[in-house]
Amino acid sequence: MPTTTPTYHALREAAEQLRQAALSATPVPPVRAILAPAGAKAAYGVQRLNIEARVRAGDAIVGRKIGLTSAVVQAQLGVTEPDFGTLLRSMQVPHEGTVDSRLLLQPRIEAEIAFELSESITTVPGRPEELVAFIRYARPALEIVDSRIADWNIQIVDTIADNASSGLFVLGTGTLPADLESLTSVTMRLERNGEVVSTGRGSDCLGSPLSSLHWLATAMCAVGQPLHAGDIVLSGALGPMSAVAPGDTFVATFGGADAVSVSFSDKRSS
What pTM did the predictor assign? Predict the structure, then answer.
């Protein structure tokens, strides 16, 4: 990708457009036109500006998410590796909670495994399975992705700048085995209003959710922001995402037992 660095003014302009899109619930054109010909580094700069603004306004960082873990999606966007976004306290929805549909622009939902870290990862082990020692819990999770970019017309620069197309997330109250074999072989089933809309397994997430966590830990150390004890990490989708409409209820089960669910309010009142 090109490495030309855009001006700080361009970064602020892109950040402001995305911020206003979220506030007004009105998607904007792709921001890659503002940032061109810059690549991922500039897009992460835009992401950081908006995260810093939300923290100054009283929010708090609670972890990270990994996106683009699917080979199919990577091929669509012309990239060869995942990206990451930042999880904020305000993004978390309780298990079996109801989301106000008015909070979202173009929501989609995907089922994945979340990790809560017991220790900071300041030095990344050589093998993904060695990260088991850093995990307090593995939990079933739902990520409600969203895009401030009109019609999801995104390329890699757009989604990174838009906090990796983050929206909300839900953690189940149960736990899953956190060893390599269990996380790789676990099966996922996502239902919308009782109808199956997505299936997958742990191996569909970069080969294993632990491999996904290993990629993130390496990326965060590289930018001087290592993962901390207590952080929540969404490791990436185990199957295709599903569209969301007001009134929907989603339930994801992992291994046929552990579940996580969320509903959406049935109106988008003005």
Answer: 0.93
- 114-123 per-position pLDDT tens digit: 999 999 999 9
Proportion of the chain above pLDDT 90, given as a percent = 82
Q: What is the pLDDT of residues 216-255, one digit of tens each?
A: 999 999 999 999 999 999 999 999 899 999 999 999 999 8
Instruction: Compute CA distances 100 → 46, 81, 92, whole Å.
Output: 27, 33, 13
Domains of the chain: 60-264 (3.90.850.10)
Which residues in 22-106 belong to E strands, given as ranges?
Answer: 61-67, 83-88, 92-93, 97-99
**Residue 257: what residue type?**
A
